[in-house]
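Because discrete structure vocabularies remain unfamiliar, we first show an illustrative case, written as a sequence plus integers encoding its fold.
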Amino acid sequence: MSSCPFPYPSMAAAASSSSAAAAAAHVADLPHPPATSSSDRDRPTASPPPLSSTVISKAAHSEPTRRALLSKITDTNQHVVLQCVKEEIDRLMADKGLKNVITLSADLTSLNLLLDLVYIIQQSGEWAETVPIIRVAKHQGRGGGQLPIELGSADVERVGSRAVCEGRCEALRQLSLIQRHIGIPLERDSNGLERLGGRRLTIRPLLTLPANHPFRNGYDEANPVCEYHGAHFLSVRDAVLCRMGFGGSKVVDQCVTLYNDTARYNRLRQLARQPPPIWGCHTISTIHWATLQAFDRIIVLHGDQPDHTFTAHIYIQSFTPNAEARLFTTERPVDGKEGAALLPQTVRVVHEMMRDAAVVAFGNRLAIALPPAAGDDGSGQGGEQTSGPAVGAAAAASSSAAAAPPAAGAAAGSLSQHNGGDLMGIDSGGGPASSADGQGGGAGGGGSCGGSSRDLLQKIRSMRSVASQLVSDLDVAERMIASQADSTLDGASLAGSLSTILAEMTKQLAEIADHNSQVPISVPLVSDYVSSSSAAPAAAASAPAAGGAGGDGNRGEKGEAAASSASTGDDGGEGEMAADDRRRQRRRGEQTAKAADGGSMMGDE
């Protein structure tokens, strides 16, 4: 028999003859073949009595009891004992809600390891919040992509010593057992530090969290707040789910800024911060970037329940002055279809779960819910059917967008209606392309709206929201400078944000001063993300050449989307998280650089 991976040197040394006798008493009901005489040999033998759950549990927790049990096993009754322990494990997993989710591999035949597994399961806590994550991982093809998970000898050994197991929270105990099957390795390094996917994972005890920490309320010792990859996560499971955030294919990627669509910006930030559940969804990851005062969130819309055949989730990122929403799915595209008809189930799930919030996140990008009707020539001029929620959502988007302020320094025609993250090529449905003078397009393509007094009022309201943000950032800047922290990355980022806001305020003041009710103002339905909010003036400057440059830009962005969609393997999440960090910092850097130019522009004005 293999040696037990859970050493008990102190307990073994302390075992007395009385404890050994007690241990032997616990295994008195060990099944064994009845004694037979020569006259009994031709008669069938009765089945041995079952090994009780109490004995199995005591053998799993107590080294003396385990030794006493092993000493009574013979070649004749070994298979019976193994079967009894496996049945006990099946019962324990059923009680944890793991039936048809986790099972035992045929290669797990060591009684020591089976008893270790009994101990691990009994100490692992509740699995109700982990099972949905396992289902998502399976849909993404991680760890073989099949359910139930088959636990083998290597999985039990990978948990580590009993001291390691007991020193972990319940969520980490669960992860240590299933890590191989969800493609996210967990290990305790030589310095005693936890590493998730090779990166340090730090558990944050409740006492170490500041009084104003956003995750302090509702702290769960079994699934605690943790620090990982430079961010704080609401829980260990949130960190695990975040590593799956780029799994599947990216369907659509939409970004708004504080300046070009304040209402949508604020709503996305709210979705990234509000307590779960959201839209009835409970499988959620919440991430807080303390240095940037930003929140990210992953919301699993589909794929975490037994009857689901694919998974779809929305990834929201919000950091001043941007808010971005991405949609990922593992649904297989329908052959021979175009646009949203490629992914009809995903589109249906988005509208059913998110309702009006689908428009907040993606504008009218997913308004087309059904493929073109028969006889459509593919020009998009007729025969296109939409679902009820999608139609209402598109109408709401058109009405709300008509009142939104234009993007800073950019006409409607300067913003591409295709997004780099749109792996499936779903058309945004944003109306006709803009005319050469940049005044065409707009919501629904129904012409431009005049610069009436209502437009002026909207500009003033937009100006007020920008001014509020400036006041808030100035307060932060004052505290930073007072603490001599202005040389940090936060200081540089804040400087860029302040300069960008000042440039935007100057521009809006000029527009208000020069307001003419006869000048048409074209408003884009939804602003697609270019490279950063401060890149909008550059986009406007290059508007005359947009027709020629658009194709290359989209191809480059499509490549990025393809790279994101490739992250369905074991290490994909780590690569995409790192890439996303770089994109986040690059955007901050671009804003800072643009801010310097903005300062000189303010002087010129």
